[in-house]
Amino acid sequence: MGLLKIIENYFKPEEGKNFIGKLGRNDPCWCGSGKKYKKCHLPEDEKKQRKKYTINCGPT
User: Is residue 29 within 8 Å of 40, Cβ to Cβ?
Assistant: First the structure.
């Protein structure tokens, strides 16, 4: 298998997951559940995002 074919397969999107730009709240969820993103993974993703940028301001 040539290098070009390996690169093409690496960047090939998974079946059923066509991401074009930012995922909107009312778009189907990326996990393939058939639910809207806001009812499926949005709360979990927002929690991860908040935890990532939270600064500990409590007593040391």
Answer: yes
